[in-house]
């Protein structure tokens, strides 16, 4: 069952006896857990019928006893095991998971990793409840996820704004959701959010960031690249050298792949390289500037400065000096 269906059923108060929520992406696990807590019981029922347990502080025997208890002046009980990844006794719950109490909703909130599907606990829940695996959003799908998420809140979003959020916030969906919630408070519904909104309300510079640096390198805009590097040199929190190298390396790998594609249409590139069509168009333009020989030479330069950024063969240069030297070699 997918996330949207689970949430829809919860809001309709169609509950399962057990929810085993696990996986590397905590965002959906926490959202489902929060929805169950919000909808399972009325406010006046929670004192006697809701139990929140934590993995490090719990034991299987007590948990089973609580789950088998009868509700008081309520249709159901709710038992939530949070931080279940820290609970060592999940397999000791198998007897309960095979025969769960009809009056109890039992939620297992197991985050940051997958639970072994071969184990008995997961198989038992599969027969008597819902197993939901929350996978990380692949990097190439992150911009589309952000776009869909923002539009789901009633806003438009420019491709550049979506890319800025993805580059700056990474794949932490909770962090992205929190930052978008700030925009939801500050910006009128129906507005198309652009890079100016991002800069003014989230604090990501629309002109001086890793995304713009990579763009400048892609079009061999030496002046703009040096302005951004100078900004990074004077604002150490704005540009981490290792992160910069990683993003420039990704640009070169993508360009190299495009050079050897038989179909170089924008849609084909977007599909093969797994990027947004907006990004595919920029990459295609960059391949007209950087031939395979120059790309290979630049990858060697990036490797050299990756080592220097970690202290190998570098005793005197600051990160800012390394950035300036590296950018010169990449673009000349």
Architecture blueprint of SSEs:
Layout: H1 3-11, E1 18-23, H2 26-40, H3 46-49, E2 50-54, H4 60-68, E3 77-82, H5 94-98, E4 104-111, H6 120-128, E5 130-133, H7 142-152, E6 156-157, H8 159-169, H9 173-186, E7 192-193, H10 195-202, H11 210-218, H12 222-234, H13 241-259, H14 266-273, H15 277-287, H16 292-309, H17 319-331
Parallel strand pairs: 1-4, 1-5, 2-3, 3-4, 6-7
CATH class of the largest domain: Alpha Beta
The CATH superfamily of the largest domain is: P-loop containing nucleotide triphosphate hydrolases
What structural category characterises the helix and strand content? alpha/beta
Relative helix content: 55-70%
Largest sheet: 5 strands, parallel
CATH architecture of the largest domain: 3-Layer(aba) Sandwich
Termini gap: 53 Å
Strand content: 5-15%
User: What is the residue-mean pLDDT, rounded to a whole number?
Assistant: 91
CATH fold-level topology of the largest domain:
Rossmann fold
Low-confidence stretches: none
> What is the rounded Rg?
25 Å
Q: What spatial form do the alpha-carbon principal axes imply? A: elongated
Strand order of the largest sheet: 2-3-4-1-5
Number of domains: 3
What is the number of helices? 17
Order of helices and strands: HEHHEHEHEHEHEHHEHHHHHHHH
Write down how many β-strands occur, each being a DSSP E stretch of 2 or more residues: 7
